Amino acid sequence: YFDAQQAVQAYWLQADLNMEGIVAGAQYTGISYAKNIGTDFLGGPSGLDDQSSDAYALKLGYEADAFTISGAYSQTGKDAGAGGNLDGYGQSKLYTEAWWNYAYVTKADTSAYNITATASVADFGLSAFYTASTTKNGMGAGNDLSMNELTLEVDKSFGALDTSLVYINTDADDQNDGSASNTLQVYLTLNF
Length: 192
Fold this sequence. Notes:
mainly beta
């Protein structure tokens, strides 16, 4: 719970369960701006309205020694300008957050789902992440904004060196003229 008097209140509620291989979770978060957010430090209009927003997410999955699979769903409130924990710009902690194209799932009036699968095979880590989101009127004039992201990752450690090869396929209405795009990334991390 966060309270900046006469400015903003925010809260985050989360419960997670991992029992005999069953993985489950629930999240609920909200933010509310005080009514005087509409004035600047000189008492004049700031151009900001009194706004609030919230979101919830649910997750269910199964975890074994060699693999994990889970699915999650989230829905944000209809109000714009959620700010803070739901600002639509930064990477959130919602279960449905995309691997690379973050901030879509936290836009106002957005439903999203995520499917994640990870496995360990012969000292290699294999991961697949799929996120899809739809923002109502996200493109304006009654047009929804859709984003789909598929991420595949292979990682392996060589002593103190961690390596990852990542492939990302993105299909978002507001990127690349609405056409799908591909990204390949290499990560090298030296632990010392």
